[in-house]
Design a protein that fits this description.
mainly alpha
């Protein structure tokens, strides 16, 4: 493992300089720049500012963030690997994620299951109606995608529960403890 892998969390989307663990970085306030699959991260406000004309933002600002510690990052990588399909041995998934590489990133784990459909699993109109009626609020366009990802994770956990009980049918009780 190189020294760069030990100190670098990710790279700036503009200048490609490394952003270290427990370092300050900036993200864009515009929701389309912060999707689950693609969050833009910048090492400085000037790098953030360079992306604004490209994306045609009219009203945007840079949000200051702090990157996770190396330990927090490795734990989240292990959790993503477990729920992205490597549910047979969580200990080996956690051990494998302790050394960051291209093959054990969350996107690589999801790519292994790329034959699965990545459709919206939520009825968007029903969701919007529910939020409007219960809280008189509007719903952003990225909510259905985010909820679908959560539903996928819950389904993966329920599948594990059903398998542990020796069944080939996922039942409502498999979601109870989740």
């Amino acid at each position: 493992m190189s020294q760069d892998e030990l100190t670098t969390w990710t790279k700036c989307n503009a200048c490609k300089k490394p952003i270290g663990f427990k370092s300050i970085y900036w993200t864009c306030s515009v929701s389309t720049c912060n999707t689950k699959r693609n969050t833009l991260k910048f090492c400085s406000v000037s790098c953030w500012d360079s992306h604004v004309p490209v994306y045609n933002h009219r009203n945007a600002w840079a949000l200051e963030q702090t990157s996770p510690s190396r330990e927090e990052f490795l734990k989240s990588e292990a959790r993503d690997a477990i729920f992205a399909g490597n549910t047979s041995n969580p200990a080996s998934a956690a051990k494998a994620s302790s050394a960051p590489s291209a093959s054990n990133t969350p996107s690589a784990a999801r790519a292994a299951k790329s034959n699965l459909p990545h459709d919206i699993l939520i009825v968007v109109s029903k969701l919007k109606d529910y939020i409007k009626q219960s809280a008189d609020m509007n719903t952003s366009g990225d909510v259905a995608d985010a909820l679908s990802d959560k539903v996928r994770i819950l389904c993966e956990r329920a599948i594990v529960e059903a398998r542990q009980e020796g069944r080939k049918t996922v039942m409502g009780r498999d979601f109870k403890g989740l």
